[in-house]
Write a structure and sequence with these properties.
Largest sheet: 5 strands, mixed
Strand order of the largest sheet: 3-2-4-1-5
Order of helices and strands: HHEHEEEHEHHHHH
Number of helices: 9
CATH class of the largest domain: Alpha Beta
Distance between the termini: 71 Å
CATH superfamily of the largest domain: Peptidoglycan recognition protein-like
Helix content: 25-40%
CATH architecture of the largest domain: 3-Layer(aba) Sandwich
CATH topology of the largest domain: Lysozyme-like
Number of domains: 2
Structural class: alpha/beta
Oligomer: single chain
Shape: globular
Strand content: 5-15%
Length: about 270
């Protein structure tokens, strides 16, 4: 009997645990409700955009929600998961992400996948200049100088599998913050296991380049551009490429780098 009372006490104690984010969670629900009302609105004043005015409003029945087509991976550059959660629930920071994955593998889903997080900032990939509007942002709790724990990467892989399946995201569209903003960002760091992700279908990779012959007319900058990099700052673009695909942070560029780029360039064509 005493054991039963003890376990009942523990159950009630766990149920009384207070969520420290209950205030910002209420704000989240309020903002989501406001956007839901906007989505549900019929067009404004009939004929406002028409000369002559349309006699009545006609709403199409062939539509659905816009879905994300990219996944952008970050490291938090902070010291802990609680610090990052605080950052993303503070108005003055003006930054957010859809997911935060802690070092122990805990996944915090902070924003509905269909809503626009403020995670990419001023960025560009290919011809896309508003990356926030078509992407999901994932932040990994990491200060930028430490390896990523296996348990954290395992949680990431499970999440990426669901996202790729749910939204049909192409393999080439799993990229890093440093790829889309090479002059400003370097995350995730050179310690991030991109090959491990590519082996699972999240991003491209390359094989043995020993016997690769790069054509004499191969233009590295044009190849970087076709892969997706913004080459207006060629040095930043090449650094971002080497960090992602070679785990190399040096500023050199030679034949080994060209071989890797040439191999990948052919996959992106």
């Amino acid at each position: 009997m005493r054991h039963s009372i003890f376990f009942l006490f523990l159950f009630l104690l766990a149920g009384c645990r207070v969520n420290p984010y209950r205030t910002t969670n209420k704000q989240y629900k309020k903002q989501a409700k406001q956007y839901a009302q906007q989505i549900g609105e019929t067009p404004l004043t009939t004929g406002a955009d028409s000369v002559p005015a349309a006699p009545y409003w006609v709403g199409t029945i062939n539509f659905n929600l816009r879905k994300p087509n990219f996944v952008i991976i970050h490291h938090t550059a902070q010291n802990s998961c609680p610090q990052t959660l605080q950052t993303f629930t503070t108005v003055r920071t003006q930054v957010s992400a859809h997911y935060v994955i802690c070092r122990d593998g805990t996944v915090h889903h902070m924003l509905n996948d269909y809503l626009r997080a403020w995670q990419a900032g001023l960025s560009k990939w290919g011809n896309v200049t508003d990356v926030n509007s078509i992407s999901i942002g994932i932040e990994l709790d990491n200060d930028g100088f430490e390896p990523f724990p296996d348990v954290q990467i395992n949680s990431l892989l499970h999440l990426l599998t669901r996202l790729k399946t749910s939204y049909g995201i192409p393999a080439a569209n799993f990229i890093g913050h440093g790829d889309i903003a090479p002059t400003r960002k370097n995350d995730p760091s050179a310690l991030f296991p991109w090959k491990q992700l590519a082996d699972k279908g999240f991003g491209f990779w390359y094989g043995d380049t020993t016997g690769i012959a790069v054509p004499d007319n191969f233009n590295s900058l044009m190849a970087l551009r076709l892969v997706g990099y913004d080459i207006r700052d060629s040095s930043a673009a090449t650094m971002a490429f080497k960090r992602h695909f070679e785990q190399d942070t040096t500023r050199t560029w030679g034949v080994p780098d060209q071989k890797v780029l040439y191999t990948l360039y052919r996959q992106y064509q």
